[in-house]
Amino acid sequence: MPLNVIIIGAGFAGLWAARELSGAAVDVTVIDRNNYHTFLPLLYQIGAAEIEPEQIAYPVRSILRKRKCIRFVRSEVHGIDIDANCVKITGGTISYDYLIIAAGSVTNYFGIPGAEEFAFPLKTLDDGIILRNHILSCFETAVHEKDIYARRKLLTFSIIGGGPTGVEFAGALSELIRGALRRDYHALDFSEVRVLLLDAGSKLLPSFPEVLGDYTKRRLTAMGIEVMLNSQAQGIERSGIRLKSGAAIPSATVVWTAGVRGAAMLHDERIAKTDAGRIIVTDTLQVPGHPRVYVAGDLAVIDGNPLPMTAPVALQEGATAARNILRDIAGLSPAQLVYRDRGAMVTIGRNSAVAIIRRWKFKGFVAWAMWLVVHLMNLIGFRNRILVMINWAWNYFFFDRAVRLILPACCDNPCERPCVPASGKCREVQV
Amino acid sequence: MPLNVIIIGAGFAGLWAARELSGAAVDVTVIDRNNYHTFLPLLYQIGAAEIEPEQIAYPVRSILRKRKCIRFVRSEVHGIDIDANCVKITGGTISYDYLIIAAGSVTNYFGIPGAEEFAFPLKTLDDGIILRNHILSCFETAVHEKDIYARRKLLTFSIIGGGPTGVEFAGALSELIRGALRRDYHALDFSEVRVLLLDAGSKLLPSFPEVLGDYTKRRLTAMGIEVMLNSQAQGIERSGIRLKSGAAIPSATVVWTAGVRGAAMLHDERIAKTDAGRIIVTDTLQVPGHPRVYVAGDLAVIDGNPLPMTAPVALQEGATAARNILRDIAGLSPAQLVYRDRGAMVTIGRNSAVAIIRRWKFKGFVAWAMWLVVHLMNLIGFRNRILVMINWAWNYFFFDRAVRLILPACCDNPCERPCVPASGKCREVQV
Fold first, then answer.
1. What's the pLDDT score for residue A427?
2. Which of A28, A29, A35 is the mutation pick for testing B, counting most B CBs within 10 A?
3. Which entry of B20, B52, B168, B317 is annotated as an active-site residue?
4. In the predicted model, what is the mean pLDDT of residues B60-79?
5. pLDDT for the residue A409
6. Is the omega angle on the peptide bond into residue A408 within 30 degrees of 0, that is, cis?
7. Hey, what CATH class is B115-257+343-421 in?
8. Model confidence pLDDT, tens digit, residues A233-265
9. How far away is chain A from the Cα of B425, in angstroms, using its nearest Cα?
10. Domain A3-107+260-329 is found in CATH 3.40.640.10
11. In angstroms, rounded to a whole number, what is the distance separating the alpha carbons of residues B98 and B8?
C-alpha cells in the first residue's frame, strides 16, 4: 500500500510540494480551508479595486486535476497529533506517513491595542474584498457628510507598515483615488483626501538597498502620499490612530500591513518556534526530532538561516520538502535546501517600481515593466492572465478602475469596521 | 431655480429615465441601495459560476459621470411622503418636485411555508454570489459524505419555477456540473447528481408559444435535467421540498424563481396596487391623483394593459416617464406610453435557445447566437463586454468554468442555508 503524504495548505509551498509528489508512488492529500489558491502578490490590487477577486484565485481542484493520486480536502485543520501521526480536520481525522505543514502566515498585530479589532488586515482574499468595500463606502458616506471633521476622517486612509505590501497598496490606493474616484465624486473636495503611509522605522522597504527605499519615498510623496517614518502606533481606535508621540490621526480606514506571524499549527511545547510563531526546522526542512514532519513556506524558519517570507522561497521550500520525502522513501538521506535568490520587486505606481536581482538594482519604468511581466507570467491560469492584462491595460490607458463595486453588500457601514468579524460571526451563528 | 426630480432605483427604468433627463433644466437625484447597476438578464450566470459578479455590475457613478446635473445617492429608501413631496432616506429627507419610482421587484414566495427561510432567491447580485458559494460547498461536502442519503440530498439541486430564470439557471447549472465539476470531483459518482426543474403549471415558459416551451422541455431533458410539471410546492424545509401531491424531495439546494412582486415602496392605502404589490398607474405612468409621481419598470402596471416585467419594458417606461416630466414642465400634457415589443429570448444551454420576435419564432443555434449578440451588445461598459466574451468563449471551447470559487468565505456551511440571513445578520449586529 502506498504511503500517505498530507500537505496542509494550498499556497505556493503546498502546491509546489504536491506538484513534486505527483506521479510518485505515494497518496497525497492537500488540505486547505479555501477551495482556491490565492496569488497573494497581487492581493493589494483587490483592495484597491484594480482587478476582480476571481482573477487572482484559482480552484485547487483544477490545479490538481491532472495530477495522479492527489486528493483535495477543503477543511479547517483543528490540530496535529505529532505522536499519533494524524491531522484533525472538521468531522474527522486523517493519518499520515509524512506531513508537510505549509499553512503560511497570518497578520501580526504585535499586541497593539485595538489593532485586531479596528484595523483592516490585507492577508487573505476576503480581507481584500472587505477593504475594497470599506474604502468605497467611505467615499459614498463622505459625499453626504456635512460635518467637516467627520468627512475628513472618512477621507483619511492610513496604511501602517512600510514594507512591500504597504508601499504597493498605498500607491494603488492613491491612483484609485486620484483617478476614478476623483471623476466619480464631483461634489467632494479632493484636497480633503489624505493617504498616509506610516512606519515605525526610519525608512521604507527596509529589506531593499537604501537607495531604492529613498526612491520609493520620493515617488510616493510625489503621488501625494504622506510618508510618515519613525511613527509608531500606540493604539488603534474606531476613530483612528494614536501614535507613541502622542499625536492622534483621525482616520476611518487603518490598514495594517506591519507584520506577519506563523499560522498557529503545532500547539506543542516540545516544538521550537520563533517569537513570531514560525516553526524552527533543520536545513532539510524537518522538524527536529520528527523526521517525517516537514515545514515549508512562511511558517518555516531554517535554524541559523532565516529566509524572507516570499513566494519564491515558499515554492522552493515546498519542492525541497517533497523531494526529501521521496528520498527518504527511496532510502536516501534528506538533502538540504539549496535556495536560489530570484530577487525581489515592489511596484509603486504607474511606470514606477523598484527591483533588486542579484546585485543589480532597478527602478522606474524598467523595474515596473519587469514587475508586470513577472507577475503576469506567474499567475496561474491562461484565462486569468488575459483578464488581468485587460484590467491593467484598462486602468493604465483610461486612468480608470472598473471594479469599484461595494459587493457583496453585507459589508455596509464604513464607520463600524463591519464585515471582518462578521465573516467569523456568520460561522459562529451556524455551527 | 430648477425643479427637482428624484428617481428611486438605478435599474433599467431608473437609468433610462436619468439619461432622458440629462441636459434638461432639472436637478436629478438618483437613489439606489447599491453603488452599482446590475445587468439582471445575466444574473443566473453568476449563480452558475459562469462569469464574475463584477462583469454584470457597473458603478452608477461611472454611468452618470458625464450627465450634467445628475447626482447619485447611495441609500436605502425608508419611505415616501406623497403629500409632503419628500423621500426619506438613511440620515435624512429629500424633497422633490417630480418623483419617478423605479424600485423594481423582489422575490415573491407566495406565502409558501419555509420558502423565504430555506429557498435561495435569484434576484440580486448578492443572491447570485450566495447561490454560487452554496452549490460549490455542496460538492465539497458531498465528496466526504459517507451516508448515501445525505450525499444524495447534497447533490440534488431543485429549481422551482419554469419561467425564463428557472430555465436559464437549470441549463447553466447542468452544464457547470456535467462539465467542470465532473472533472473536479473524480471521487463522486455523478449518477447521484440530480438537477430538477419544477413548475406548478403544465408547461415551461408559459409566456412563450407552446412549441417553444415544448422544445425547451425536450432540450432540458436531453441535458439530464428532470423537468417536473404540475408539481406544486406545499412547503420548503431545510431538508428539501414537500409537494402538494404528498411527495418529498430531499434537496439541500432549492432555488426559488417562481415569481416576483413589486418592491414595497408606497405604504399608503390610497394608492391602488395589484395583489403582487405592483402600483397601478395610468397609461402615462402617473399614479392616479398624484400627477407628479411616476412609476416605471417592474413596479408599475398600467391599468388595463399589463406589460411583462422585462428590461425592454422597464427602459421604455423609464424614458417615457422622464419625457412626461419634461412635457409637464413645458406646459404640455403627458403622453401615453407607446410600447414597442422587442421580443423575448431565453437561453437553454450550449447552442440552444428560444426566441420570439414579432410573430417569428426561433430555436436552437440561431436563437442562441441571437441571444449572445443581444446580451453582449446591451451589457454596459466596453470592458465588461470583452471580459464576459472571454469567459463565454472559455466556457464554450473548454467546457470549463473558471469562476468556481467559494468566495467570500463567510458563506460556509452548505446544509444550513448560511449567508442569506447572515448578510442581514451582519447588519443587525452593527446597526
1. 23
2. A35
3. B168
4. 89
5. 59
6. yes
7. alpha beta
8. 999 999 999 999 999 999 999 999 999 999 998
9. 8
10. no
11. 11
